[in-house]
Design brief:
36% of the residues lie in helices and 27% in strands. By secondary structure, it is of the alpha/beta class. The chain has a single domain, classed as P-loop containing nucleotide triphosphate hydrolases (Rossmann fold). Helix 3 (100-110) packs across helix 4 and helix 3 (100-110) runs parallel beside helix 6. The chain is globular, with a radius of gyration of 18 Å.
Length: 250
Amino acid sequence: MYKAEAKNINFYYGDYNALINVNLAFPDKTVTALIGPSGCGKSTFLRLFNRMNDLIDHTRIEGEVLVNGKDVYSKEVIIDQLRKSVGMVFQKPNPFPKTVFENVAYGLRVNGVRDKNFIEEVVVNSLKKAALWEEVKDKLKKSAFELSGGQQQRLCIARALAVEPTLILMDEPASALDPISTAKIEELIHELKEQYTIIIVTHNLQQAGRVSDYTAFFYLGELVEHNETKTIFLNPSDERTQNYITGRFG
């Protein structure tokens, strides 16, 4: 069962063809890493699944992007509801200027939830899922900005989890973090895939090797190769993949 799928995708910034005939499917409860040099289309591809590219002028898409079997670009799709079911974690932590508690509760309140006991239960569970509860249980009323960078990033993950997404997108979630915080994020990804499907963009090949079940290599807007991670790293079928992984370019 595929949780998400891209079929025959061509994506344009104005006249520039940034993604060229990409086909890629994501099995349920797996982690797929998107790798490739800067500007190859990884983040553009990732943002298709929650329609973040819609915020950029003069963009155009051809093909189908499916989440739970439904085309997210169909006219019936309500974008706010789509972004509730597709969580996004960005490169730099972006907590809201609110308390730790209200950061996690935000999505529930926006969606009209008023039951205080339910909100509290979801906040606690989300912080636990994000491996942050023990560190912040005495700081729930403090500003999220008082947390360390690594804690802020896990708070952003807890915020995404609170609205029960079916798919989690991560755009280089550890690139701004120190090695200890990075290790915690990677450990968290391993735990989260028991419940969620995760797509992660990373420039760190070692990280891709550690956290992902599948790896997709993008180059100049094309999906060059997609396979189980160990196959991509140990026995790639395309010379360009081999050259990238061995550091000959990128």
